[in-house]
Structures are given as structure tokens and as C-alpha cells.
From TrEMBL:
It comes from Hucho hucho. It catalyses: L-cysteinyl-[protein] + hexadecanoyl-CoA = S-hexadecanoyl-L-cysteinyl-[protein] + CoA. Keywords: Acyltransferase, Membrane, Transferase, Transmembrane, Transmembrane helix. Pfam families: DHHC. This is Palmitoyltransferase.
Amino acid sequence: MAPHHVLRCCQRSLAWIPVIFINLVVGWSYYAYVVELCILTIPNNAEKISYLVVFHLFFVMFIWSYWKTICSRPANPSKEFCLPKVDKEQYEKEEHPDTQQEILKKVVVGLPVYTRTGTGAVRYCDHCLVIKPDRCHHCSTCDMCVLKMDHHCPWVNNCVGFSNYKFFVLFLAYSMLYCVFIAATVLQYFIKFWTLCRWRSVGDCPQNQLPDTHAKFHVLFLFFVAAMFFISVLSLFSYHLWLVGKNRTTIEAFRAPVFRNGPDKNGFSLGFSRNMAEVFGDQKKYWMFPIYSSHGDGNSFVTRLVNLDPEQIAVGLQVNGKSSVDGPASPKHVLGDNINHIEDHQDCSFDKTDVAETVTVTIESES
């Protein structure tokens, strides 16, 4: 048992290496830009001050969102998703999977759970001993079930999920802006230093062009690093913006969630504007700040009618709780007011009339 704990401790310690690496690179970039470029290289005070002001604005927002992503503990399923004591004992004693599923189906009736496994079974975590809420998955690295899990990111040494997904997207956005600003403002001095080095190599170096200090090495390397990170982060940021617009996680993008009527990759999509509000909230003044403002509590989610295009008609949608800027909603609200999901009906018809045009949608329950 002891070697297992020692190994686990070593793994957790080594997991911080990517975070330390990122912080060292950012620390060096701060020194190279502020000291070597702005203070020692740029002669014009107005240019120097304007660069420093904008740089520090991006730097503060980048560091703020980055550490919010790191420090936000992954949200776990609330206690309502744990099996009652009697059912838990019965489940553990039972050896037949079919009988275990019957126990889970009896418990899940009172829960806002609408997704299933690929075989149609209730999703249950044998490690955490909880019924998995919609969009919840078990992270083997964090060794816990994470609400609306997107992926485990080694660069933040944390699971990206419901509690910190907004912070993660902002971290990508501000890191991209940080890199592109550095690359754009360093470019002219990069060209001058590069040209100066070439002139010196042929012995025809003009005098009094730029200070002959070690700053040139920092400036040259700073441009390459900023440009390289910008290109890599740009692709990742674009992908996650697409996910936000579709209201999908990375896991759901590769494997569509399975509902009672079958797989539906757009099962949680509510239209672009509402999908954005699910992550960033209704109050746009908080969108650009790493402050919690997402909808709901992560235990239940707004669903749409299966096979209905959310961009064409908004019918049968339900509200998934209120937005908050103070923190995630309390798990106690997962049952009750937040449960307004679509229920099975024998023959449900919804009619929507707009001027002279009538749209009718009919849903039939499973046989």
C-alpha cells in the first residue's frame, strides 16, 4: 500500500512540471519585453510608455485567467446522485448486471438524468459510487467524476470542466493576445537587430543604429517564441470557440451523447446565442473577466428535442437555472426548480403560429 501512495505522490509532483515550465517562459518574456526591449532598447518615451501600458493589460488578464483555471477545483456531482443506503447495499450485493441496472433505473427516475451509455444503460461510476449526471465523466488523472468534463489539461494540471471552462477559454484568448501583441511590437526591432547582425557578418556595419548590448538576443528569441506560441494557441482557441458555439465538450465532439432516443451530437445545443450564454452568462459585462458567470450548477443541463435543429425553431426548451457572478450554484438546487426537462409523452404536439405560417412538431415516445 505504501509504494502505491509514494508513486501517486510522485505523479502529482511531476504533473506540475508543465505549469512550472509555462510560468518560467512567461516570467522570462516579461523580463525580456519590459527590461530588455522597452527600457534598454526603445529610445522614444511615448512609444515605450504606450507599449508598457497595453502589455501589462494583457499580461494581468492572461495571468489572472490562467491561475483561475489552475486553482478552480473541478465540480463534482451533488449528493443527490449518490445511491441511497439501502439501494447501495443491494447494488453491491447483486452480481448480475441486469439486476444492477434495474436498481439504478429505479433510483434515476427522480433525477434529471437523460443520457445513457452506448448500450442504453444508466451511467454509473464504480469508482466514485455515484450516478453520473448528464455530461459528467470520470477523470482517471484527478481520480474523480467531473461535471461537464471537457478534458484534463496538463498545462494547467487540472481538469477543464463546468467550474473553470469559461476561465480556460479566456486563458486561451488572453494568451493569444499576449503573444500577438509581443510579436507585433517586437517585429520592427527584430528586423533591425537581424539586419545589424547580417551587416556585422560582412564587415559593413553602420554606426549608432541600435545599442550594442545582449538585449538583441532577448529580442530575437522573444519574437520567435511569441510567434510560435501564437500559432499553436490560435488553433486551440478557434476549436474551443467552435465548441462553445455548438454547446459541446471535447468529449462530446468525438463521441456524441446518447439520449433515450439514441445518439445526438446536438442534444445540448440551444442556438448560438444561448450556447454562448451557457458558458459566459447573460451579463455581457462579465464575459471578458475570469469571474464565474455560467448558467446552472453543472448537475443538470438544458436539453432540446432530439433531431430538432435549434437554429430553425426553439420549441420544447427549458430554463436551466440562473446566472451568478459569485460562484457555481448550490448543488441543492439540482432537484426541484431546475428540473424542467422534456418528459416522455405518448403523443405530444407543439404548435407555433407566426402571422400566416404554422410550424408543427410531433414527438413520439419510445415503444
